[in-house]
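Long-time lurker. I teach an intro course on protein structure, and each term I like to show students one example going from raw sequence to a predicted 3D structure in token notation. This year I'd like something fresh instead of my usual example. Would anyone be willing to generate the tokens for the chain below so I can use it in lecture? Attribution to the forum is fine with me.
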Amino acid sequence: MNRHIFAFQQVARRTISSSVRRQVDNKVPQKQKLFQEDNGMPIHLKGGTGDAVLYRTTMALTVLGTGYVVYELVKAAFPQKRD
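-- Reply from a regular --
Happy to contribute to a lecture. Here you go:
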């Protein structure tokens, strides 16, 4: 039992310590340039199509949710009479 645990520890230690670091390009200056340029777009839409879809979905859910809340409040304010 102990032999299996020791072997597992060795494998875990070997994979962590011998992993090769990948070179990652620094994309921060490109993103800064994109978000700081003055092109008349709001900052929350400068990220592209995904941001636009997320914004429109959020706005639609907000409007629908507000409408539903108002409907439920009106329904609660004027309860139906039972026969």
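Some talking points for your students: Residues 45 and 52 are 6 Å apart (CA to CA). The first helix runs from residue 2 to 17.
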